[in-house]
Amino acid sequence: MKYRIVDDIWGQLKFYTEGDNYLLITDENIYSLYKENIDSLLNGKDNIYLIKPGEKNKNLSEIGKIYDYLIGKNIERDGLILSLGGGMVGDMAGFAAATYKRGINYVQIPTSLLAQVDSSIGGKTGIDHGGYKNIIGAFHFPLETLIDIRFLKTLSERDISSGLGEVIKYGIIEDYSFFKYVQENIKKIYGKSEEILSFIVERSVEIKASIVKKDKFDLNLRQKLNFGHTIGHGMESFFNYERYYHGEAVILGMLIEANIAYKKGLIDYNYYEEIRNTLTNLVEPYEFSDEELNTIIQIMKNDKKNRDGKIAFILPVGKGEVEIFFDVEETLIKEAFIYLD
Ligand SMILES: NC(=O)c1ccc[n+]([C@@H]2O[C@H](COP(=O)([O-])OP(=O)(O)OC[C@H]3O[C@@H](n4cnc5c(N)ncnc54)[C@H](O)[C@@H]3O)[C@@H](O)[C@H]2O)c1
To answer: What is the value of pTM for the model shown?
Structure first.
């Protein structure tokens, strides 16, 4: 897994755009924000495909159009896809690269915080289908991931929160001092301090890459990356992926799952309170009715991480430490949704 943190992304990309055997895939938002740089990189060539932004376009029909473009441009087996964008572009471009001509190389250039700290690292690519998220996909590791944190300057506040969810997760599952660092610097992160963002992106990538390296194809150790995701995914799906961004749902998921850990006696009240105080103000909460909670629990029962019909939870058991549990009672799950005293 190769990644580099760079501060001259457009200069770095010139290396890949000299010939004609490549396609740059990005979305319309990023193109309009970085038009000058992109046009100058392409130098008059039309080796670019623009995706319509938004999760609803992460589908087979858009992938079909990318294949058509790759064929039309005569991109060969030793060609390259450059994926410039957030997680949605990265998942699509990566999936096109994984499948076109049985797999060609691609390079990830993540532009959102979530993509820089999470989705561009780890080789998972895919698309949504039939109402199921990421149901079709492939493991396909990029040639390299090039991260330039200056992209984050143009990112919205909600997209910062969404990426921050995954950043905080790394601290809770692996490195308590990093969790503390993020707590102390939250305001500066939203203020887009380059110094703080550089550190949090670098440390997050280091943590994710070290976990992925030990379990490339998600057979065991990678599961710890799912802290906050059992409930987070349940909520995203309940709201049809419309109310919360992915990382926002993970933030709420971590709040509730930390409460489960506290109620099960796995962590003490002080640590639970620390997690809760860090997370509560980042996302608009939602009060679920009992009936709605039953629906979410049903959704969670379909998760592929479950065993013998029991829902899998990654729960904190100490500072910077988590374990997997299959024995959380439904009544406890429901109680944990009330996380504010
Ligand atoms: N492959 C993986 O391991 C993995 C992991 C987590 C999430 N994901 C996927 O990632 C996607 C979510 O990623 P995301 O949060 O980056 O969403 P996204 O790619 O939809 O980007 C969010 C929005 O931010 C815009 N944007 C991106 N970079 C920008 C920038 N620098 N300045 C201004 N606007 C910018 C995009 O145009 C879009 O409107 C989901 O599809 C999810 O399934 C994949």
So the answer is: 0.96
End position of a domain, from candidates 90, 122, 151: 151
| Ligand 1 contact, 116 CB (< 6 A) | no
What's the 24 CA to ligand 1 centre distance in angstroms?
17
User: Is there an atom of ligand 1 within 6 Å of 26 CB?
Assistant: no
CA of 92 to the centre of ligand 1 (A): 11
Measured in whole angstroms, the distance separating CA 175 from the mean position of its chain's CA atoms is 19
Supply 305's token pair: 């991480």
Cα(169)–Cα(219) distance, rounded to whole angstroms?
20
Say if residue 89 is in the same domain as residue 139.
Answer: yes
Q: Are residues 173 and 120 part of one domain? A: no
Q: Residue 218 falls within a domain, yes or no?
A: yes
Q: How far is the CA of 55 from the centre of ligand 1 (A)?
A: 9
- The per-residue DSSP string of 198-237 comes to HHHHHHHHHHHHHHHHH-TTSSSGGGGGGTTHHHHHHHHH
User: In this predicted model, what pLDDT tens digit does every residue of 223-267 receive, in sequence order?
Assistant: 999 999 999 999 999 999 999 999 999 999 999 999 999 999 999
Query: What's the whole-number average pLDDT of the chain?
Result: 96
CB of residue 172 inside a 6 A radius of ligand 1: no
* Separation CA 59–CA 166 (nearest Å): 24
